[in-house]
């Protein structure tokens, strides 16, 4: 199927910005399960200075905010063709990042007592094989952490979200990653888009997790929707956690406080 998206991220500053730099990961990846048919990016209030692929094979753009700008907007449009259901199996590990690194905790995925207890409980259930174990983990997280907006943010760790008991797709992915690593399975974060039959306008992009399983390679698990990704999903960036795969990472000097507004349309 063909999925079309139009994504605008805008920052408005209280005062003119002397200097600002943004690293953008918004271009989807080409792989065996999806093909980028078209892609464009327009920057208002800034200039794209460089483009490159990072260690996770994410396409990155470096945008310099114009000196004295009061706002900057990044407008991306594109169309991606996805294949029929592949049951979440992405396949072999690729890129420059070694597989062992996805077993290591990060600040956002370091397991505490709550995540450890969840992982141990799922392990004790006696699932036959790693595939069943990861499905059991995904369902256990969905049961334990209700999907609710407004209780967490981009800085919330897996352990904090677990203790709160509420969160969004980013939190579900971080908890899954933290617990899977405790169970000895490499896991990573995925940011992207999700085409939903009942709506076009969305508040933000989507996030899910992938686990590396012997014999299959990387396999996706969308905890928030209790499914493995299919043709409705568009993969954009991957990494050890949200910090590695965030759509926009901004650094500014001056400008006072800023307000970020996101507009996203995803349709067929």
From TrEMBL:
Judging by the UniProt lineage, the source's domain of life is: Bacteria
Transglutaminase-like domain location:
161-225
**Pfam short name (any one):** Transglut_core
Under the heading InterPro entries, the entry gives:
Bac_transglu_N, Papain-like_cys_pep_sf, Transglutaminase-like
Question: Entry's SUPFAM superfamilies?
Answer: Cysteine proteinases
Q: What is this protein called?
A: Transglutaminase family protein
């Amino acid at each position: 199927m063909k999925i079309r998206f139009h994504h605008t991220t805008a920052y408005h500053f209280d005062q003119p910005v002397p200097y600002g730099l943004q690293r953008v990961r918004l271009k989807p990846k080409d792989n065996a399960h999806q093909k980028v048919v078209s892609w464009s990016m327009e920057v208002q209030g800034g200039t794209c200075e460089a483009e490159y692929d990072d260690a996770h094979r994410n396409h990155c753009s470096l945008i310099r905010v114009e000196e004295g700008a009061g706002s900057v907007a990044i407008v991306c449009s594109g169309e991606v063709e996805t294949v029929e259901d592949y049951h979440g199996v992405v396949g072999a590990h690729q890129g420059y990042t070694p597989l062992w690194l996805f077993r290591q905790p990060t600040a956002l995925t370091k397991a505490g007592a709550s995540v450890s207890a969840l992982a141990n409980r799922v392990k004790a259930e006696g699932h036959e094989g790693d595939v069943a174990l990861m499905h059991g983990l995904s369902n256990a997280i969905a049961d334990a952490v209700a999907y609710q907006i407004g209780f967490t943010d981009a800085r919330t760790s897996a352990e904090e979200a677990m203790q709160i008991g509420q969160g969004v797709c980013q939190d579900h992915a971080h908890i899954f990653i933290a617990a899977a690593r405790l169970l000895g399975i490499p896991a990573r974060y995925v940011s992207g888009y999700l085409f939903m039959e009942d709506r076009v306008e969305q508040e933000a992009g989507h996030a899910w997790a992938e686990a590396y399983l012997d014999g299959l390679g990387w396999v996706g698990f969308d905890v928030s929707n209790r499914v493995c990704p299919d043709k409705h999903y568009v993969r954009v960036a991957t990494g050890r956690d949200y910090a590695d795969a965030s759509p926009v990472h901004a650094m500014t000097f001056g400008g006072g406080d800023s307000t970020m507004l996101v507009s996203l349309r995803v349709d067929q």
